[in-house]
Amino acid sequence: MMLRNPRCLALVLGALAWLPCAVAQAEEPADPCASVRCLELRGVVRRSGDRVPIASARVLVVPERSARKPGDVPTRDHLRPEDPPAWVRSGSTDEQGAFAIADVPPGRVRVVVIGDGLARRESIIVTTAKQRPIFVQPLSASPFRTVVKQPQRTTAATTSTSLSQEEIATLPGTQGDPLRAVQSLPGVGRSPGGLGMLVLRGAAPNQSRVFYGEHPIPRAFHVLGFTSVLQADVLEGLEVQPSNFGARWGNASGGVVLLHPRRGRRDGVHGHAKIDLISASALVEGRLGRKGSYIVAAQRGYVDAVLRVAERIDPTAVFALPRYFDYQGQYDRDLSGGGQLTVRLIGSGDRWKARYFQGGRRIDGYELSDQFHRAEVVHARDRGRWRTLVTPAFRFDNATTESELADSKRRTYVVSWRAEAEHRFTQRFSLTLGTDAIVAPFQVKSQSMEFNASAPAERTIRGHDTSIGLYANATLRLGGLTLWPGVRLSAFSRRANENTGVDRSAKIAFDPRVLARWDVARRWSLHGGFGAYSQPDGLTQSGSSGIFSSGELAGGRVVLPAALQQALDPGIGSAGLNDIVDVYRAWHGSLGFEWTSRFGLSVRATAFARWLQVLESYVLQGTRRVSAAPFTTEQHARNYGGELLVRQRISNKLYAWVGYTLMRSDYRNANQASALGPVRPSEYDQRHNLVVLASYALPHDFRIGGRFRVVTGTPYTPVVGTVINEFGAFPVGGEINSSRFPVFHQLDVRLDRTWYRKRTTWTAYVDVQNVYNHQNVEALIYAGDFRSIVGNLGLPIFPSLGIRLDW
Questions:
Q1: What is the C-alpha separation between 139 and 120, in angstroms, rounded?
Q2: Are the C-beta atoms of 88 and 15 separated by less than 8 Å?
Q3: What distance in Å separates the CA atoms of residue 185 and residue 613, rounded to the nearest whole number?
Q4: d(CA 293, CA 147)
Q5: How far is residue 79's CA from residue 73's CA, in Å, rounded to a whole number?
Q6: Which of 687, 694, 802 is nearest to 753 (CA)?
Q7: Which residues contact 727 (CB under 8 A, 6 or more apart)?
Q8: What is the pairing mode between strands 688-698 and 680-681?
Q9: Do residues 200 and 187 lie in contact, with contact meaning Cβ atoms separated by under 8 Å?
Q10: CB of 776 closer than 8 Å to CB of 746
Q11: How many helices (H) and strands (E) does the chain have?
């Protein structure tokens, strides 16, 4: 083992320097075994906290002259170079952390353990007694978490950004949440109100997809966006491709986020338990069988319990009660011939109960319940020139809404699969052929009050939504130039028992794509790409594309911008279902450069553009089953700009980056009766987005980090007038998205402290969002007649405290 740490190297050289000093002392016996029978000292060196065996550590044994009791020696009493011992025995640990040192005299000795990335450990032992493991603490700047590395396919993407597990766990302002960490990267828009949304290069959240493993998850965040639907510790890392992704991924017209699961550890049973102000979580992992490993994790939010305590304190207080849970399970097994088998489970559930206070008591007004559960099997083999992958999956979605006026229940049974084969013809050329599919039969039952004469009291809709894709992707290396040409052919189909009479139940999309990277010099490279991307419209009523005006969503005294309204909308797609398939069609283009220094510093700049066409068709009620042209809305959106990322990768103590995005996102819409309208900013138009982030390891196992953000205010439609009649006051909207909220700026700070014990590690943290309590405007509060603005909504300072136990 080569000791890269100069401090450790000096310690080893100093210890070896004791040898000639011992010979020079004629009074001391040159051979301690001359008068007594020596023995072989055996032991094991493990890392404090997670008990991992430490390989290639240097172990020194010297005589102990003091009368100190056996045990660890404080740092202040460590051996000094000016006081050399009479003799020294030395050895090294093997892969299992074990050492064996011969010719050690019986009695009291001092054992010194030193190694790269480890704090020096000295302990006094009795050689004739039973030896216990020696636990050595890692240095504060040395990441101690063990991750089982597994091969990751090189994704055909030129502008992807990845985050490691250590970065995800300690990013300030994210509480260690993986998808909230994504929101700190350039090209990712700020989520309005701090809610759970992913806005990738100006695309609406429902135009991007999140993949956990090989299959998409139906939603990335829990209700209200408290946290994502899986724990960070089940991930090896994540990758963000905001646009121009390869042909392997489909059904997305925006970008993709790839969450890479990790395999369980096989060096013993490990895990953690964590608790903070809003949730509690736990994870256990270890070996299962001779060739297998497992991971089991779960999380439970208890915001509802905290709010119920507040209601007991104040009898007049009433709150919406959110509750959530999620779980993950995985089993991995190595197979003969380079194969791997993985069985994976993932699930998430939310319940959101809205209530109001009337007549001196609290009344339930609205309740949403939404769950999904997925099981999948992955068989992968990498042997010789061939790599194959087969993975079927089954997912059950169940959503229910209940209110005083209407109830709705929806169940969806989703069967999906992916199968692909890659052949490496030469070192310069490889070809991948694959297919993926999603078949989703659904059933929606709704009930409404009898006074609604335009709709039946009970309604049941059954049908299925299907998408099948065939893709081919090649890798061609021509010296410093690498090309990833690809093509994807997708077929979309929808059937519903409420037939519209319009033959548009199936569509086909052909998407050619090409990506390129040119290594101009050792540390300089150029990257770019261009391609087509298609996505079917969702099973919701018209307006789900995410680029409709905020004026259509205004109501009540609090007027929410459309972006915030979409994040809070608990609808489950029970209205407007039909058998018409419309396809969102987008074209992506990007061009940029990257420079990397030998010190881990990198600079990447990318210019990008995206053009989107949305055609949404539906048949008005009363005209169903009539052979007539459906009513169609047409929308054209464009997003263009540039992003800059200056990043210091994880080094000895520091990781940091500065991300800046300059972008415009606008759209035009029209229907069958008019031409394209004026260009308007979309709800996700954030012209300037600056993120400055750093995290530094301090002495004594402290780590401090900060994140500062400055973002252009969100567009909204102002209220310019009021209509008052016998039913009340109603707002009149002005030009769509013609106004903006003030500039958003916020500072978040996180402080971690770690305590290492022999078999456990304790970590406490405080993560404070909006440290200087700036009132960022997220929505406006109008007077009862909408004639004046009386206030605004925004998130105040929010401290989060947590403690975590690892073993």
A1: 9
A2: yes
A3: 27
A4: 13
A5: 10
A6: 802
A7: none
A8: unpaired
A9: yes
A10: yes
A11: 6, 43
User: For the residues of 660-675, what is the DSSP string, one character each?
Assistant: EEEEEEEEEEEETTS-
pLDDT digits (tens, 9 = 90+) for 202-233: 998 889 999 999 999 988 888 777 788 998 89
Beta strand pairing call for 481-496 and 688-698: unpaired
Q: Which residues lie closer than 8 Å to 679 by C-beta, 6 or more apart?
A: 666, 667, 668
Going from the C-alpha of 709 to that of each of 179, 745, 806, the distances in angstroms are 17, 5, 32
Q: Does domain 6-136 have CATH number 2.60.40.10?
A: yes
Written as six digits, the tokens of 430 are 């490889």
* Domain boundaries defined on the chain: 6-136, 161-257, 258-459+469-806
Q: What is the Cα–Cα distance from 431 to 456, expressed in whole angstroms?
A: 55
The pLDDT value given to residue 549: 30
Q: Do the domains 161-257 and 258-459+469-806 sit in the same CATH topology, yes or no? A: no
Question: To which CATH superfamily is domain 258-459+469-806 assigned?
Answer: TonB-dependent receptor, beta-barrel domain (2.40.170.20)
Whether the Cβ atoms of residue 116 and residue 8 lie closer than 8 Å to each other: yes
Report yes or no: 110 and 79 within 8 Å, Cβ to Cβ.
yes
Instruction: Give the number of residues written for the chain.
Output: 807
Stretches where the chain sits below pLDDT 50 are 1-4, 6, 8-13, 15-28, 141-154, 539-556, 570-576, 622-627
CA–CA dist 140, 58 (Å, integer):
20
Query: In this predicted structure, what is the pLDDT of residue 176?
Result: 85
pLDDT for the residue numbered 616: 73
Its CATH class, for the domain covering 161-257, is mainly beta
Pairing of strands 98-104, 39-47: antiparallel
pLDDT the model gives residue 142? 45
The string of DSSP letters for 571-620 reads --S-SS--S---EEEEEEEEEEEEEE-TTSEEEEEEEEEEEEEEEEEE--
Amino acid at 188: V
Question: Six-digit token pair at 375?
Answer: 């099981």
What's the confidence (pLDDT) of residue 356? 66
* End-to-end alpha carbon distance in the chain: 27
Predicted pLDDT at 621: 52
The structure tokens listed for 788 are 């004046």
| Other residues' Cβ atoms within 10 Å of the Cβ of residue 452 | 11
